[in-house]
Specification:
Its EC number is 4.3.1.19. The protein is an alpha/beta fold and 319 residues long. The protein is 45% helix and 15% strand. The strands form 2 sheets. It has a 6-stranded mixed beta sheet with strand order 1-2-10-7-8-9, with helices on both faces. Helix 9 links the parallel strand 7 and strand 8. Helix 1 crosses helix 3, helix 1 crosses helix 8 and helix 3 crosses helix 8. The longest helix is centred in the middle third of the chain and has 17 residues. It starts with 6 loop residues before the first helix and ends with a helix. 54% of the residues are buried.
């Protein structure tokens, strides 16, 4: 059976993204290496367009739509970063976007999405089914729906972050990736295992949002109550069906981190690396700094995003 996403798909996505998405930097810190006891290479997707890796998958998927469909428009549902990503991708391609977004999404993310020209529609994430609402919205208006992770073109686009990291560093022993719906780690693990068959891929989830860990342990998708965590971009209650079919084969382990460990990682990144990272973007770094995963050799960590308001950021790192 052919894999749903291959390294060739990821390389094709990289070609589409060339000159459109940023090739984000990989940074080092001797202090971090000493604290962790390993060589750590940080892929700064907080410096990506829209401030998160999500632009990669959104643009890769949107760029494949027909001119007729682009004229009708694009729809998406998201807890924030995918919303901005689809809005910008639509603008880049001369299309329009309608975004379904949870009412409790940080205002900074709502404002940024509207700033890219998207129409915003809100729903209650604790009582509404965003997939059903999003599909109905798209069908009613004739829009192409680009989901946050349940799409091979989205996953292939996200995998370009790991592809770049692996190209820009010598052989890595471990790749550490934040996990929400599973799209970033599905694409990243596909790229990593193709290029470095012996690499260990570790996902990181908030302790309150451990649906992927539970699912991998059970070898089937497990649903949990909607997590309440500062890592709002990782507040998934069940892994995606497509992403889980990839991750169950390629992901070696899942580490869990507490909200306090995430805050500590955000503070460390700000003080030592001079990076502003949103909570969801800091979980991989948090797992290393807190010792929630074994650390040795050469470790690549993807910082997935940096979309957090100044007020919220100050509140979190001062906690």
């Amino acid at each position: 059976m052919t894999a749903p996403v291959t390294i060739d798909d990821i390389r094709d996505a990289a070609a589409r993204l060339a000159g459109v998405a940023h090739r984000t930097p990989v940074v080092r810190s001797r202090t971090l290496d000493d604290l962790v006891g390993a060589e750590v290479f940080i892929k700064c997707e907080n410096l990506q367009r829209v401030g998160a890796f999500k632009f990669r998958g959104a643009y890769n998927a949107a760029s494949r739509l027909s001119p007729e469909q682009l004229a009708k428009g694009i729809a998406a549902y998201s807890s924030g970063n995918h919303a901005q990503a689809v809005a910008l991708a639509a603008r880049e391609l001369g299309s329009s976007a309608v975004i379904l977004i949870p009412e409790d999404t940080p205002q900074s993310k709502k404002d940024a999405t509207a700033g890219y020209g998207a129409e915003i529609v809100t729903y209650d994430r604790y009582t509404g089914d965003r997939v059903a609402i999003g599909e109905a919205l798209a069908a009613d208006r004739g829009l192409a729906l680009i989901p946050p992770y349940e799409h091979p073109h989205v996953i292939a686009g996200q995998g370009t972050a790991a592809l770049e990291l692996l190209e820009d560093t010598d052989s890595l022993d471990t790749l550490v990736v934040p996990v929400g719906g599973g799209g970033l780690i599905a694409g990243s693990s596909t790229a990593a295992k193709a290029l470095r068959p012996g690499i260990r891929v570790v996902g990181v989830e908030p302790a309150e949002g451990d649906d992927t860990k539970r699912s991998l342990d059970a070898d089937e998708r497990v649903s949990i109550p909607v997590p309440r965590t500062i890592a709002d971009g990782q507040a998934a209650s069940i892994p995606g069906e497509l992403t889980f079919s990839i991750n169950r084969k390629l992901v070696d382990d899942i580490a869990l981190v507490s909200d306090d460990q995430v805050r500590d990682a955000m503070r460390f990144a700000f003080e030592r690396l001079k990076l502003v990272i949103e909570p969801s973007g800091a979980t991989g770094l948090a797992a290393l700094l807190s010792g929630q995963m074994p650390a040795s050799g050469r470790i690549g960590v993807i910082i997935s995003g940096g979309n957090v308001s100044p007020e919220r950021f100050a509140e979190l790192i001062a906690h």
